[in-house]
Specification:
The chain is an alpha+beta fold. 11% of the residues lie in helices and 16% in strands. It is rod-shaped and about 65 Å long.
Length: 62
């Protein structure tokens, strides 16, 4: 199995890894209830996604 003849420099390795950092979660406001939720996910507060009811939420007794 072939092996590299020369060692990669630390600069070259760092350049390759520059895009490997972790990014934060993208947040959006729900147009139905106004709650903050993760983008491209069903709103955990009201259960709507893209203007349609995706999950029926149960009313909690307080």
């Amino acid at each position: 199995m072939p092996n590299p003849k020369h060692r990669f420099s630390q600069t070259r390795t760092a350049k390759r890894r520059s895009h490997d950092h972790v990014e934060g979660v993208q947040l959006a406001n729900c147009p139905n209830c106004g709650a903050v939720h993760q983008s491209h996910r069903v709103c955990p507060e009201c259960g709507y996604y893209r203007g349609k009811l995706a999950i029926e939420k149960k009313e909690s007794d307080n």
